[in-house]
Amino acid sequence: MTPPxxxxxxxxxxxxxxxxxxxxxxxxxPWLSDWRGRFHGRSEAMLAPASTEEMAAIVDLAAKYRVPxxxxxxxxxxxxxxxxxxxxxxxxxxxxxxxxxxxxxGAGRLALAEAGVVLETLQHAVAGQGLRFPLTLGARGSCTIxxxxxxxxxxxQVLRFGTMRSLIAGVEAVLPDGTIHHGLTGLKKDNRGYSLxxxxxxxxxxxxxxxxxxxxxxxxxxxxxxAWVGTDSPASALHLLRFFEARTNAVEGFELVPxxxxxxxxxxxxxxxxxxGGKHHWHVLIEATSAEPGNRLPAQLxxxxxxxxxxxxxxxxxxxxxxxxxxxxxxxxDSISEAERAEGQTLAHDISVAVDSMPAFIVDAARQVERxxxxxIASAFGHLGDGNVHFHxxxxxxxxxxxxxxxxxxxxRLVDDLVTAAGGSISAEHGIGQLKLAEFARLAPPGRxxxxxxxxxxxxxxxxxNPGKLVP
Length: 472
Hints:
This protein is an alpha+beta fold. The protein has 17 helices and 18 strands. It has four domains: about 5-95, Uridine Diphospho-n-acetylenolpyruvylglucosamine Reductase, domain 2 (2-Layer Sandwich); about 100-220, Uridine Diphospho-n-acetylenolpyruvylglucosamine Reductase, domain 3; about 225-335, 2-Layer Sandwich (Alpha-Beta Plaits), CATH 3.30.70.2190; about 345-430, 2-Layer Sandwich (Alpha-Beta Plaits), CATH 3.30.70.2740.
């Protein structure tokens, strides 16, 4: 531990007691690698404040002693944005003790949750009041509210409710100089200059530490209808989405799944079974919900699917007959990454292009990658309705080699070039972190990079907030 780090740690223990700092190496070790296990850092201590006031004191001390901090919630991020540097120059800053739901306002449909609250915990808490927080993803049992806000997380319901940014009514945060930004009032109109809330959302902890968030809630689901559809192409899937948009605003999940991804899940994930008979090149998982009982939503969805079948938009479809079957359909979608890991090495790209351009991009980009790197298998799955898919390249018949080391960088470069040429983004919902920093610097317009650096320097002139992430 460096002398400044020791001074900070000693000051913390003296003011807030031994629970505020973790120094045992075995307790810190699980938090030093990213979720995928591709980035590994080092930290001599993990600071663990229990309140916003303690957080403010930590950041004030960090500024005084020039000690960089790496904020971390559930450590479920996909781009190593919460992994400390390998040289041990920074200390981990755990938000997990700040895990109180301060308030649930049913009348105002707002929840005030601290940064360390686990998403699933919040969902259960608001459900008890007939409400829900309409953002979900595979890591809901471990990801935290602060991490979701700091990365502007997306998930499977963006089509109807938007990303985390759309669901946040206010932010409380500690800024790099140790002052507290009090922004939890949830005002719908506030024109007092630059929005610190919006700057902090998606900033990956580089401009301050989000300590609590005011979250918008919606009424709980009264009716739910889930269907699995077989179709011939991503273009047909998009036509199906437009078909539904013309008839209802109830669709909140519209997930594209290629046949090869479904086959992987059926092969590697126990207890799964194909929803449809026969083979279909592409599949779509559709979920529609209503907050009003008695709308007969399942019957409506079944009728619309029958109409789509008659119009030749789909090849086959089945409607979940109960909640267990609906969850089984979602398990097929949510298990794709797990099945890919069981199959071999996979390069994952979280990308977005304009919705209407996505079907052609999926097909063309996969063809170009497989042609440039023979033996690989390229496919895309995910949130077709909001223009964000997970474009994955599997090692295929090259699984015996170190796929990442041999061709990983070149494949990612090609994919990112294709995305950029299509006017898209190389990071749709996972952030930049460390993983995409070099590619972001290579491909982002100079004006964007200049603005990011200027904002970072203005708010964090000492460079102590999550160094080496997001800002090239």
